Amino acid sequence: MSPSLQNQSIISARNYAEGVPISPRWRAAQFVLMGLIALVAVWFAIAGYRSPAGDSGKFDNFSPFDLVGFGVLAWAVWLVTPTTWTVAITTFHEAIRRRWMGALLGFAVVMLGVSTFFTWMQPGEEQKFLRDYGIGFTVIITLIAAIFLGVAMTVPDIERRTIFTILSKPINRREYLFGKYLGLMMTLALNLLVMSAIFLLAYAYFVISKEGFAAAWRADGLGVSYNGLGFDLSNLAKALWLHFFNLAIMAAVAMALSQFLTGITAIIIAFVVYFLGQSASYWERLAGGSGESGPVLAPAIRGVVDAVYFVLPRLDRFDVRERIVNDLPVGINYMMKAGSMGLVYAAVLLVVAYFAFSDREF
Amino acid sequence: MELNKWAVLGGAGALLVCYNLAQPGIMALRNNDEKRPNTNKREAYGPSLDWLDRLAKASENKDDNRVKLDFSVMSSLMVAGLASGFKSQVANLLWMKSDEYWHQGLFTRQVPLMEAVVTLDPQFIDAWSTAGWHWAYNIYADIPMNPDYKKKGDAVIVAAQQDAIDTGLDYLKRGYNMNPDKYRLWFEWGWTRAEKAGFYDEETLQHYRTARSKSDAREIEVTGPDGKPRKEQGLDILGRTIGHLLERIPEFDKALDQYADDLMKATPAQRAALDKAGAAWGRYGTNYPVIVEVWEANKNDPQIAAQIRRLVPEIDDIVAGHAMRNKIAAQPGKDQPVGAYVSITARYMPAWKIMKQGRYEQAKEVLVGVMNANTKYHLQGLDALAKIYEIRGDAPQAIKTQIEDAKKIERESTQDLGLHFLARLYEMAAADAKKKGNLKLEDAYKHLAYETWYRSRTRDALDFYALRNTRVYEAKYGFKTPENVVKQIKESRKGGVPNAAPALPPNVEGYYR
Question: Do A133 and B23 touch (CB under 8 A)?
């Protein structure tokens, strides 16, 4: 748009680019956090990349690219200014006050709370059913929340013109956008935490009711819980924690799409991205044709598949049900690798969102 | 500002490149096919994608009857399940649909659904198990009823049935590969291979052994005193199954070792005592404990004790052997192994030992004698047993009935293993004749083996081991159905229990061609 055609009263990208000054105390706290992240990264590079005790460790690997995620996290910490934090807290309060959010969470809590009653659907494999149901239900509800809230982060402010008021304050667009994202992630974390707690309690209740309290915790290779309830709960908690990175990506997808598209279109596309992302391994397999059948697709089609695969979020990396159903521990090494890449991809999307938002005229 | 913005975008591109470059490391852990040490569990974090290869090949092998996941099976629900990450939940829904078809008798409609279920949820053991059973049993039984197959004739039916069994086994094999730490599919693969495909061999045994080594192999659910169900270690059914299979091959030496050494943990002295109990059974029949009973009641009476000792000179051995049998049987889970050990020792070991010496003709005579309760070879002490009954005070008619029952029990109970043993004996004799270069004799023994397997399959329609063996002979040597044998066994059914044992030891020369 030509500058001459711009309405000078409209807030532009140039307003308040500087933001409010940051206190040395705040910066010191940021440095401490970044230092901790650096320490974890160093530990991961030296020892943390190794598989859990008991694994053969044959495919343990460390790549410098694994550290990029730690860098992104440190960068994110650096970007959290007091203003960003204020926006995040405000967004969090707004989000949890939404009625539909409360209803969704309430519904999820009830359904997870009574999940043990549905185990009749898979007689003989009730425990497996409960794990699948609990994780599946938590995933779908938090996913809906991530997409619907993600799309509704900046758009309502623009439609209701409150963006003018916000950006007229000493706040730059980066702080606004990142604060919104941070607030959204806090909301999703709360959702995930509540649902996980209910699910894990229901699971513990189921195992204890089958085996008795003392026997449930024993890793005796018997009963419903072969490795003990502690092991099961820890593994399930790890799986749910990995899902948080899934949400981080989907929330960023929704926010990025909402910068370009209308609400409903952004929601639909976000779900499509989710489906594609969940199928990432299949895309990779089809592209590579590395299985027993050899190359599957023609070279030209493989080129397209390769290109799609390159930009696709690999959401299936956060699915570790294979380890859970086989009663194998989900390794911290894997969680860090997958989580690191989750942060990198979310960062890419946020940068794209910022790219669109930074110059946007309202 | 503009430059910064584009620089940030460039940074995003660099991050995306880093993201892609880090993926091989993650995929190495997800696809890790390494087995976790001391287990059969894959260390992988991600699911197996083998089905994609089958999907890709589905349209290529049209002639292959094996079920494959193909595009016609990829219903919208299944695609949604695969793409959304809610595979297990979709699998549950499809499973319920499959169950609905089962209750409607729509077997073939279940087929793609079951394939979809196991693809979506490879840890759904019930689904693998049911799919294997459905093919190997239900579809197998349904094929001869199908008008299309009826038109095509017996050869096509047999081939289709064999394919149904193979498909069932394929499901079970894929299932245990996906769930290697659960005993059930290892066992079911072995069981289906033995009892439906008719393979009584080392491979089947190895699967039973693998199943037995799993921690859940003996788990049973019981209701505790608080009314709640809980799991406990139950009987060693798989250990018994291994013994049972060895009996039916037959490999009697190994079967006895399995029962005595593995299941009973018997010492050599205990085995020797059980051998004596077996010898007593072989001489006096299944009711030999009555001798011990009468002895215990009268051993303080010198006159009667002397009379018993005259009738049964080995009375001390029998008493000791029977005491040992009772002592072992009283221990949890050992009653069946001890019973099997003693009965095998009584009925088959005499002929088995002779066969091992290479005296096949003599072994054949003893075995056929046992199967016909011929007192020249078996139950030689029945007269003495009758006198023992007399000492006990039994009426003459009751004594007669008991003696006849003893013979009847032996005749009926030795048919199954006896026919397998006889056929095996002929096969060993054929191998021996071949080694000696006597091709005529070899052919005659093979014919006898074939006929004996045929007796067994006619007697018991569920004897798939015999069925398979006869088919092997027919395919290899062109042997034709022994109609006279079939007729004789059918006739014998009119008397109630079929009698498939040859009345007399067949004359080998009568089978020369």
Answer: no
Do residue A291 and residue B56 have CB atoms under 8 angstroms apart?
A: yes
Residues of chain B with CATH 1.25.40.10: 75-220
CB A88 within 8 A of CB A183: yes
pTM as predicted: 0.73
Written as one string, the DSSP assignment of B93-126 is HHHHHHHHHHHTT-HHHHHHHHHHHHHH-TT-HH
Residue contact B52–A209, C-beta within 8 A: no
Considering only CB atoms, which chain B residues are within 8 Å of A112? none
Please write the tens of the pLDDT for every residue from A87-126.
999 999 999 998 988 899 999 999 888 888 887 776 667 8
The CA distance from B263 to the nearest CA of chain A, in Å, is 22
Residue A181 lies in a domain: no
pLDDT at res. B84: 59
Work out the minimum CA distance from A159 to partner chain B, whole angstroms. 25
* DSSP-assigned beta bridge partners for residue B233: B219
Q: Quote the pLDDT of residue B178.
A: 81
Using the CB atoms, write b or e for A263-294: b if 16+ within 10 Å. beebbebbbebbebbbbbbbbbbbbebbbeee
Give the distance from CA B146 to its chain's centroid: 28
Confidence band for A301, pLDDT divided at 50, 70 and 90? confident
Per-residue pLDDT band at B496 (split at 50, 70, 90): confident
CA distance A325 to chain B (A): 7
- Residue range B141-160, pLDDT digits in tens: 989 988 888 888 888 999 99
Those of residues 149-208 in B touching chain A at CB distance below 8 A are 181
- Among candidate residues B342, B180, B178, the one with its CA nearest the CA of residue B247: B342
Is A208 within the bounds of a domain?
yes
Per the domain annotation, does A53 fall within a domain?
Answer: no
Tell me the residues of chain B between 35 and 54 that have a Cβ less than 8 Å away from chain A: 35-37, 41-47, 49-50, 52-53
**How far is B152 from B144, CA to CA, in rounded Å?**
10
Flag whether residue A101 sits within 8 Å of chain B, measured between CB atoms: no
Look at residue A11 in the predicted model and tell me its pLDDT: 44
Smallest Cα distance from B85 to chain A, Å? 6
- Its CATH class, for the domain covering B75-220, is mainly alpha
Residue A336 inside a domain? The answer is yes
**Number of domains composing chain A:** 1
> Does B265 lie at the interface with A, CB-CB under 8 angstroms?
no
Range of the structural domain that residue A304 is part of: 97-171+187-358
Give the ipTM: 0.87
